[in-house]
Amino acid sequence: IAVPDRLSVAGFDDTDLAQLVWPALTTIRQPIRELGYSAADLLLQFDDRIERRLLPHQLIVRGSTAPPVAD
To answer: Is pLDDT above 90 for 42?
Structure first.
């Protein structure tokens, strides 16, 4: 299947490999270290509160995605 001509592909975590494959993979970049610290902090709160946290993230558009084509 021709990527991105017939199928767009996107990944998550923006690893180094995402830039090395062909075509380069469109991904979501997220703060891995902050995610770990935030998860540990929530686990150590020792209460039943449900707290939502939104951490910064970024869409990194590369060659594996294309706009939709009208049929």
So the answer is: no
